[in-house]
């Protein structure tokens, strides 16, 4: 007759995973694969197998890392170009920004005649006279008058080339202003003499270019005494300073204008009209 105890043990061993047929428990290692009878029970439930596979730590780590990498790649692709430039500024960009900040600060500090209430507002009328002396209209009118009144061929040659130089200066300055389109300083008062549409821009200073070019022209083609030569240089310098003192231009506008006017004279010399060319032009006009 079979023993009830053995029967009960056999029944428990069939219902409890990991228990052997002799009634002793067997401990399974996590590194080893489970026994075949456990694999059969686990494989018999496909729903629980899928859930366990989806909850696997390795699968979670893999899916997390793939999601993070895909999101970072998407973020890198969607990062605007201006943000990249802002995060990685170049040395040239930093240098230009610093120079612009210094230029604006210095120009505002030197604008002591920008209005009557400024610290040097009492000499504003004098600075406006200097401004008119460097304007293009008086120079064009004076060159035309001297060309008309000149009796010698040499005088007509000089005045004609001066007139051409003034027209060339107006054309070049207008082109540069239209391309750069830098606004005038905020403390400037738009009460200038005979302004045009392009005069709302400040870079470069047309007065500075004209003063530098005309100073070189007069010193090269007119016989002047030493005191007069010094006065010509002082006039050109004062015209440039008046642009900053009146608040019309920034410092860099005037500095670039002086350099541009100095180089314009070289172009005038290269395009110089000789007496023979002058006679041909006069003959065609006559």
Automatic annotation (TrEMBL):
| Transmembrane segments annotated in the record for this chain | 158-180, 217-238
Domain Phosphatidic acid phosphatase type 2/haloperoxidase spans what residues?
158-269
Q: What is its main location?
A: endoplasmic reticulum
Can you provide one Gene Ontology molecular function annotated for this UniProt record?
sphingosine-1-phosphate phosphatase activity
Question: Pfam families of this UniProt entry?
Answer: PAP2
Name the family the entry cites: Belongs to the PA-phosphatase related phosphoesterase family.
> What's the protein name?
Polyisoprenoid diphosphate/phosphate phosphohydrolase PLPP6
Source species of the chain: Aldrovandia affinis
């Amino acid at each position: 007759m079979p023993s009830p105890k053995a029967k009960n043990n056999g029944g428990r061993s069939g219902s409890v995973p990991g228990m052997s047929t002799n009634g002793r428990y067997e401990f399974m290692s996590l590194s080893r694969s489970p026994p075949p009878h456990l694999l059969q029970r686990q494989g018999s439930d496909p729903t629980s197998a899928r859930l366990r596979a989806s909850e696997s730590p390795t699968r979670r780590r893999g899916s997390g890392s793939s999601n993070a990498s895909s999101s970072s790649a998407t973020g890198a692709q969607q990062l605007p170009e201006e943000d990249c430039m802002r995060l990685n500024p170049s040395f040239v960009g930093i240098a230009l920004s610093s120079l612009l900040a210094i230029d604006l600060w210095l120009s505002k500090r030197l604008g002591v005649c920008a209005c009557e209430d400024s610290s040097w507002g009492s000499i504003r009328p004098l600075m406006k006279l200097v401004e008119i002396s460097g304007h293009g209209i008086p120079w064009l009118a004076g060159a035309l008058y001297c060309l008309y009144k000149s009796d010698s061929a040499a005088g007509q040659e000089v005045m004609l080339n001066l007139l051409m130089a003034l027209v060339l200066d107006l054309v070049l300055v207008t082109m540069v202003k239209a391309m750069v389109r830098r606004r005038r300083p905020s403390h400037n008062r738009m009460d200038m003499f005979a302004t045009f549409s392009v005069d709302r821009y400040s870079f470069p200073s047309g007065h500075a270019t004209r003063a530098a070019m005309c100073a070189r022209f007069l010193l090269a083609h007119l016989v002047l005494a030493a005191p007069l030569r010094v006065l010509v240089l002082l006039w050109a310098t004062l015209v440039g300073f008046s642009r900053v003192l009146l608040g019309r231009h920034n410092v860099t506008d005037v500095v670039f204008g002086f350099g541009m006017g100095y180089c314009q004279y070289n172009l005038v010399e290269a395009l110089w009209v000789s007496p023979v060319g002058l006679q041909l032009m006069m003959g065609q006009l006559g």
